[in-house]
Design brief:
Number of domains: 1
Largest sheet: none
Transmembrane segments: 34-51
Shape: elongated
Distance between the termini: 8 Å
Oligomer: single chain
Structural class: mainly alpha
Strand content: under 5%
Number of helices: 2
Helix content: over 70%
Keywords: Membrane, Transmembrane, Transmembrane helix
Amino acid sequence: MPNILGNGLVGVGLVIFAVAVADAVGVVDARFSPGVYLIFVAVSFILAWLLRSLT
């Protein structure tokens, strides 16, 4: 089960990273600055790594 949650968090992190890049390039007008999204990406990748290491 932790492995499935970890993979889900990696997917969420990739989507948030795509939003940060699109906001930085100017394709979309996101609510927060790209740096805030990158912090969320880092947190989700760290949580995913921790969850995957449990299995």
